[in-house]
Amino acid sequence: MRSRSACFMACLALVAWTAVNAGCIAKVARIGKLLSPGEPETIMESDVGAPPDMESRHSENIELKGETLATGRFTFRGRIEETDSFAQEINERYQERGWKLLRSEIDPTHGRLYYEKDTRLVEVNFKNNPINPSMSQATVMVGPIPAQPAPVGPST
């Protein structure tokens, strides 16, 4: 009986502390959100769309220019049942944020989408796992639009 009352008192103390420190808890939650990889529909709270219903697994080569995500490589894992519908969801996320679809390569097992906005190019690669669809993979690569090479030929 003594351990139940000790447990009850500890829980009661935690509830009281939480009520008194609600502002601190809200502040910790806001900080946690800022440090998280981003909103579910975007990467790092940017205009770059995240693959739908997938969790972030790895990020590298991230560069921000002001608040704009300029470069980075982001890998995700999650469920892909059908590549066509998955590509459509990705396309909607990007077009809602002002991206222009340049090229789309989709087949039953994988896909590759290319988007352009301002001076940036995004490539979204994804592959479904037919044995375990929830272990499918996607990679989002953000970078500058490559410079066009100078024309070659005789100068006038």
Describe the structure.
With 156 residues, this protein is α+β, with helices and mostly antiparallel strands. The protein has a domain at 36-144. Helix content is 30%, strand content 35%. The protein is built from 3 helices and 6 strands; from the N terminus they run ααββαββββ. Strands 1-2-6-5-4-3 form a 6-stranded antiparallel sheet, with helices on one face. β1 and β2 form a beta hairpin. The longest helix has 19 residues, at 2-20. The termini are far apart.
The counted number of beta strands is 6
Biggest sheet, spatial arrangement of strands = 1-2-6-5-4-3
* Proportion of helical residues: 25-40%
DSSP strand content = 35-45%
Unreliable spans? 26-39
Which series of helices and strands comes N to C?
HHEEHEEEE
Structural class based on helices, strands and sheet pairing: alpha+beta
Helical segment count: 3
Shape: globular
Question: How far is the first residue's CA from the last residue's CA?
Answer: 98 Å
Q: What is the rounded Rg? A: 23 Å
Q: Can you give the mean pLDDT?
A: 82
Could you give a short account of the major beta sheet? Answer: 6 strands, antiparallel
Condensed summary:
The chain is an alpha+beta fold and 156 residues long. It contains 3 helices and 6 strands, in the order ααββαββββ.
Notable features of this structure?
6-stranded antiparallel β-sheet, 3 helices, single chain, 156 residues, 30% helix
Task: Explain the layout of strands and helices.
Elements: H1 2-20, H2 22-35, E1 54-65, E2 68-78, H3 83-96, E3 100-106, E4 110-117, E5 120-127, E6 136-144
Antiparallel strand pairs: 1-2, 2-6, 3-4, 4-5, 5-6
